[in-house]
């Protein structure tokens, strides 16, 4: 799996659902020079584990916004499925109340370009190319700086959830380094003074 850290984040234009509105050509370009981007991939809507993460990101969204970070979710589901999931009550496995953009990677090209698409192509016994596995995104996360450069990436298998507080710590570490030029050792935590946007 290629490491994207230190490289420009792969560009894309795709449909995204923000609230209940569909944006036809959502792109990371809107954030260049303005905000950090936390682009996270998850396997699928209407699954058991995924809503716990999407709701956890929503719960701490004000903390990301305070730090100048745009949070964006992405799966290989269509925008119609995203909309349906956003309308489904929490007690039925839905994510009502999620306000950050959900990108629809139905063609699977975004996941492939970030190299987080599970499965692979191979040839069967008759020589035809077939996809082996389930073409869903791994549980991946990319922290992209204001210049569009990936500064952190984390890729988990589909059954391993993430701890959102760890993501906030990495955001704080990046901001601290950019502001003070100081590296952040193991178990580093931001001081209260650093927690200003």
Automatic annotation (TrEMBL):
Highest rank taxon of the organism: Bacteria
This protein's UniProt keywords: Oxidoreductase
PROSITE patterns linked to this entry: THIOREDOXIN_2
Entries under Pfam families matching the protein: AhpC-TSA
Occurrences of domain Thioredoxin (ranges): 3-176
Known role: Thiol-specific peroxidase that catalyzes the reduction of hydrogen peroxide and organic hydroperoxides to water and alcohols, respectively. Plays a role in cell protection against oxidative stress by detoxifying peroxides.
Record-linked PANTHER family: THIOREDOXIN PEROXIDASE, THIOREDOXIN-DEPENDENT PEROXIDE REDUCTASE, MITOCHONDRIAL
Family in the record: Belongs to the peroxiredoxin family. AhpC/Prx1 subfamily.
Protein's recorded name: Thioredoxin peroxidase
Species: Hymenobacter ginsengisoli
